[in-house]
Amino acid sequence: MQEVELRKGPWLEEEDEKLASAVAVLGDRRWDALAKSSGLRRSGKSCRLRWMNYLRPNLKHGNISAEEERVIIELHTKWGNKWSRIARKLPGRTDNEIKNYYRSHLKKKALSLEKECNSSTMNTSLRSECGTGSPCSINDDRRFLINDDILGPSDDYYSSDHAFEMLSLTRSPYETRLTEWMSTWPPDELYNQEWNYDDCSNSVWDFSLWDGE
DNA sequence: AAAAGTATCAACCGCCTCGTA
DNA sequence: CTACGAGGCGGTTGATACTTT
């Protein structure tokens, strides 16, 4: 049997359509079988990635909001580079998107915060809020992440307004709604609830929040 | 206006885990 | 129990867009 050479690189619109049709019929499992039977000259892995990161329903394309950014920061502080785990807490966002966003936006922000934290001109009270009063020690990906003294106890979303201010973030109307909505949750529920797009109708996530702007 | 530098993000790679035969 | 394949995950790459010089 001659192997069909698999395509790589950016997906064409036509391929997206084929993939979406195949998933509609076969479901989003058994990617290798789906890739073959759909006629796509793509690997199952490639199909899965395209579907998960771009085509599947309820994905929220576009800018990460300040509130989402805040959640990313907090969860990264708590869990490190567990992007898929973090993504499950952000409706409509993918692990890849969060990973990219963190690397391109937040890491930089963190480094500048560290620099500020370690600078000799930094006022004493701010430094004391950073931690023990001594310069930040940042050794790995988790380093930047601002310890719990800034962000508040890691299990408590609602005590993080201070960190939000320190990072110079602002809230959009959506973010305000989301914050208000999240504030109605008991803290445990926030961390225990995971977004599952298969189960949107039963999910605690309220997708109507996204549509208000 | 053009070249160089930087940022962004889609997609790939390779490893790991888990289910199944 | 073991081997194997599929899926999931995090790290990395490379093309393109954007910004700076």
TrEMBL record:
PROSITE patterns: HTH_MYB, MYB_LIKE. The keyword DNA-binding applies. InterPro entries: EOBI/EOBII-like_plant (IPR044676), Homeodomain-like_sf (IPR009057), Myb_dom (IPR017930), SANT/Myb (IPR001005). Residues 3-55, 56-106 form the Myb-like domain. Keywords: DNA-binding, Nucleus, Repeat, Transcription, Transcription regulation. Its main location: nucleus. CDD domains: SANT (cd00167). It comes from the Eukaryota. SUPFAM superfamilies: Homeodomain-like (SSF46689). It holds the Pfam family Myb_DNA-binding. Residues 1-55, 56-110 form the HTH myb-type domain. It is found in: Nucleus. This is R2R3-MYB protein. It comes from Rehmannia glutinosa.
